[in-house]
Short chain amide porin
Amino acid sequence: MRFIGLLILSINCCFAQQNSLRFSLNESGSQYFQFTFLNQVWLRYNQNNPGTTVEGDLQKNTFDIGLRRTRIQMFGKITDRAFLYFQFGQNNFNAQYNSNNGNRKVAAFFHDALCEYSLTSGNELKLGAGLTIAAGLSRFTQPSISSILTMDVPVFLQTTVDQTDIFSRKLSFYARGQLGKFDYRFILSDPFPITSAGTNLFTINSDATFAQKRHNLQQQAYIIYQFFEQEPHTTPYMAGTYLGKKKIWNIAMGGIYQANASWHLQNNDTLYQPMQHFAIESFLDMSLNSKKGSAISAYLGYINTNYGKNYLRYNGIMNPANGTVLNANNSLLNNGPVYGNALPMFGTGHIVYAQLGYLIGNKNEKVKGKFLPYASATLAKYDKLNGLATHTFNVGLNYLMNGQQSKITLDIQNRPVYAIENNVIVQTERLNAVTLQYQLFL
């Protein structure tokens, strides 16, 4: 009878909580298990990089439809101190998904599978292990994608994405917690070998690439000082914006270190170098007028990334193309796919990243929708590009129909293009992409 009573209580709690599929495991609800679902659909027009081909045909422009992210989260407190977390889903699923590998059906996978135990009754110290995004360096190295301010996160801060991790997740052991105004996390990760990345490996040359030998553990740390409220601490993920529902201002420092992470040739000798990244940043998110519901969200960060000598890697988010007619003599083809919407996203160098959003208030309580315009800038200088700047700009507008749970985002991106002329790297032009996203999150 007690089991039946708890089952009825769980069902009632599930439907009693608005916009939440949450099942209580005890009468007080302190033990629970919850499900969330997210889908981000993109409709995009892109000005392709020179020489781009789609299924062998030259394409100057493309229009594509895709699923940027499709996710299911399953998590909860199994006891008062034990926390279980899973995330399952897929990413970057469009017509070109796995076109070069010939199998569009290989898509969904477990992103996270985490066990965590709290050594205290509060958030002072939690120990966790498993497949997790918990990381050092930046809040955007471990972003909560359901609460993004801009249409997408600054992916360059997920520094080893799909190289020595699984879509930014690694097998890790960590300690995280909150002590007074400090929020901290220390992580020891066992990165995956680059040989299992599922992509063509770069041939060792005079520029650094991820080493195919000398496997080493990775150390990460991230420390935040909160001036006002502490940020939520249920999962290791960090919000993009709270839409003014919390008063947050903090400064943070983070870093990642891995010995012998990259290799390159010098005078026919193989030299190994560590990967060492450092960031300092500040995040602001607070209400401006509680009656109108207006709010501001802002971020500014300086990031020093060091993968080794002249490391550079191109990446195109959900790339709409799959080939190029260019070669290594007239393009940076040796640094990844240069076609479609790809740009130099990861490299040894210096980056300043900033974003700003303003939630426009509304006195009329009957009007549920709100507008949230934003702008972001990635100002990078990578050693391989010999002083040329890699500046990428985004402006956009969110229309929040029901907060972050149902929103439409229109984003315009402007990015640089590079070529090789007379053995010298030059910037040739700037291209644009226009994307319309619809996000549903339960």
